[in-house]
Amino acid sequence: MNGSTHPQLPPASQSCFEPQWLHDRDEPFLHRRDRLPEPAEEPKRLGIRDFIRVDAAIIRDLNLPIVLCEPVTDMQRRGDFLEYVELLHEAARLPAGSVERLLKVTAFTVSVYSCVYRPFLPFRSPAGETGEIVAPDKGIRAIGEKCDDNPGVNALHVEGRGWVLSGDEKNAIEYRGLYANIRPTGLFRIDFHDKEIFSFNPLVTTVQHLVVGKAYIDHYGTMHIRSSLSSLSAQVKYGEPLFGASTHKITGWLMEGGKRQASPALHGRWDSKLMVSWGDGSKQLLWQKNPPYQHPSRYNFSRWVVELGTESPELQRLLPPTDIRRRRDVRALDSGRYKQAEQERARILQRLREARAARTKPHEPCWFTLHPEVRFGEGRRYTYKGGYFENRELARQGKGDWDGCPDIFGDGPGAGVYA
């Protein structure tokens, strides 16, 4: 750029493998919605009794008034992170061990946190809840599962064009009156087709003005992005809020042999863009957030998040009983039926309380294997065991019925759900 001599991103190679599922043009999720339904009701205004209820509910069960929630679950929010996976597709076509690939992966990690910006809180996912994305047009298929609910543990497995993203995280929520800290412990890993592996850690997220005032979100901490094939690593520091004011600023640099490198330097905002400045004074845009969606909603969803809520008869017949789209409370809120959403959530929570009380052994995930010797944050404590997409294909052919998956969101008493 501007006559500079620093490394430039080379033309993309076409050598990356293309799994067969990427060419499936009959996938129902290809036909995605482009907006939320018109709300059937006006949201309720909160009074002082609701504020008292919020205080008690957060401490007890996160059973918040529906008007403070959005029609997604905490498991589903992991799918939000994949809005900018094109950055990983591009990284897969760059040389292993290169600065260029390291910068692309770093840009992706920043984009992940740009997707965590909404002050509405998600529905709490119970153990066993799953969420899938099969989007050949976007180059990904993914499965996530809530592997445990005490503490809350989410595991994720994503396959893309020449890479696999996996990881798990344990979230601790610290309620501090007018704000809450979401403090995760875990590790995410990206395996590229040429054997280079990257890892990065999650950040602390703070929700300010949780009950009174205009709520907003901030992230803080230092993210470390490490490669298995290079002595270079990247560090990105997210600025801590000052006197309650959100900054959103990020700064970053490369490390080699424990020493901070003067060039290149990273800077920007996690909610808008990431730039790299080179030693010769030139700058390069690594990532930029998509503009606000043309069909705004109460929840300020991006188009990608709107699309993730797509449901259709063709898609429903492929899904296990544990899938997010089986939750009638979430579907009711999605269409603005607040009273029904409250009633359905109360029914599901009661069913789950009965299920947990009747459980005689620890919950065992359907699609992920626990490695108890691995500590959170030091490696992958849960790894994908395989089989989900194969079972989905059998359901598509009318040959499978998801045997072994608990009927979490069905009707009737909860005893036996986790048997």
Number of strands: 17
Distance between the termini: 61 Å
CATH topology: Porin
Mean of residue pLDDT?
Answer: 88
Proportion of strand residues: 25-35%
Order of helices and strands: HEHHHEEEEEEEEEEEEEEHHHHEEH
Main sheet record: 13 strands, antiparallel
In the CATH hierarchy, the architecture is Beta Barrel
DSSP summary: helix tally: 9
Please bin the fraction of helical residues.
Answer: 10-25%
Counted up, domains total 1
> Outline, from the CA principal axes?
globular
Structural class comes to alpha+beta
Rg? 22 Å
Low-pLDDT segments, ≥5 res = 1-15, 55-61
CATH class group: Mainly Beta
Helix and strand topology:
Elements: H1 48-60, E1 69-73, H2 77-80, H3 86-92, H4 99-114, E2 121-123, E3 130-135, E4 140-149, E5 152-160, E6 163-175, E7 180-192, E8 197-200, E9 204-208, E10 216-227, E11 232-238, E12 249-256, E13 259-269, E14 273-277, E15 283-288, H5 303-308, H6 313-316, H7 328-334, H8 338-358, E16 368-370, E17 382-384, H9 388-396
Parallel strand pairs: 1-2
Antiparallel strand pairs: 3-4, 4-5, 5-6, 6-7, 7-8, 7-9, 8-10, 9-10, 10-11, 11-12, 12-13, 13-14, 14-15, 16-17
Helix pairs in contact: 3-4, 7-8
